[in-house]
Amino acid sequence: MVTVPGSLWDEPRPAGAPPVGRPDWLLVGVVATAACIEGVVRPDLAWRPLVTILALALVPALLWRRSRPLLAAVAGWGVAGLLSTLQLAAQTGDLGLLSMTAVLVLLYSLVRWGSGREIVVGTAFVAAVVALGMYASSAGWADAFGGSVLLLLLVALAAMFRYRAGLWQRQQREIRNEERVALARDLHDTVAHHVSAIAVQAQAGGVVAGLQPEKAVEVLAAIESEASRTLAEMRAMVRVLREEEAVAYAPQPGVADLPALSRADTTPTVEVLLEGALRRLAPPVDAAVYRLAQEALTNAVRHARSATRVAIVVRRDGDAVRLRVSDDGRTESGSTPEPGFGLLGMAERAHLLDGSFSAGPGPDGGWVVEVVLPVQAPA
After folding, report:
1. Which pLDDT score, from 0 to 100, does residue 187 have?
2. 61 near 104, Cβ under 8 Å?
């Protein structure tokens, strides 16, 4: 069981702390100038030279507040504790300068940029210094309550900004992970399909070259066409990844492009049948149907044993579109292949669109892939 104190103690420092910049040097200059001016214009202040030097001593801590938040907080609030101790020992009036309120910045930075251990140790030290200061100044209950509320609000503000930054970073990581998975699916579906087609053409080319040498040129042309298409699609994906700004690239293929997958001069032959009104599908659904059919066809060409025919059927059924890809290959009884990246990617595509996916041996033999997707993509 994980407790809140335990989880806070193990909390690492947040990433992305900005380096020292111009605003930090401006803050240091303002605090140092204010401390010097106060040391000159306040003749009623006891031990003015010592108090001014101590106030200036905490100025460098403002530059460490993000890189070494605990050290900065201990140094700054340590100066405040030393002044309270001197005030208590000498029984004098308030020794603090108004510029000493810069220690509040160090407390904020401790909670915002420190690790869990640093926050626990640092806030305990600050609480002890605050209690000592209230005792030395004989603060009433109203002053003690107001000061405590101010410090708690400062800690809560720092914790809120820390949480929001952590949430944003987690969201960015999730977005990047989703983009990597989507890219992996697209690369697998695109490259695997074209490479499978190249492999089939090359195998056929070996037979044709021996029996009908004059047709070898046609086979080589088909292989060149598939290879060029693969290279073009991969270049388009790489261009989208490398360009920081939006780039123009070819739109995703859809249901209307499925007839281009049909093949009558290869083994297995590929037949495509489109039924119903399929022209008004949501763009994500339209692209998904094409990619699912493409991947199912690739699997059939690569893995179906002795298959002579692959049928791709897409039809509109009310508010759903149904895809069925089947082949007439041999299927060994009781054997179910382990799902690979292709089946995993198809299932992910269907589930992301609130659809259903199934793949397995058909009742009449062969392998059947069935997908049902809503016509309109979910929000």
Report:
1. 66
2. no
Q: Of residues 217 and 54, which shows the higher confidence score?
A: 54
The amino acid at residue 333 is S
Q: Could you give the CA distance from residue 34 to residue 56 in angstroms, rounded to a whole number?
A: 10
DSSP 20: P
pLDDT at 112 over 90: yes
The whole-number average pLDDT for the span 224-251 is: 62
DSSP 80-112: HHHHHHHHHHHT-S----GGGGGHHHHHHHHHH
- The helix/strand/coil state of 70 is helix
Place of tokens 């008004």: 280
CA separation for the pair 292, 194 (Å, rounded): 14
pTM over 0.90: no
User: Which DSSP symbol is given to 245?
Assistant: S
Per-domain residue ranges of the chain: 4-139, 253-379
* Third-level CATH fold of 253-379: Heat Shock Protein 90 (3.30.565)
What is the rounded CA–CA span in Å between residue 308 and residue 327? Answer: 8
Interior CA angle at 64 toward 60 and 67, to 5°?
A: 170
Residue of 335, 337, 336, 326 whose CA lies nearest to 363? 326
Identify the top-confidence range among 94-103, 261-270, 328-337: 261-270
CB 288 within 8 A of CB 321: no
- pLDDT band at residue 1 using 50, 70 and 90 as cut-offs: very low
pLDDT value at 175 more than 70 = no
Nearest to residue 31, comparing CAs of 52, 4, 11, 16? 52
Q: How far apart are CA 31 and CA 28, in angstroms?
A: 5
Nearest to 107 by CA among 78, 147, 132, 77: 77
Separation CA 306–CA 327 (nearest Å) = 10
Which pair of tokens denotes residue 229? 């298409």
The tokens for 152 are 């708690």
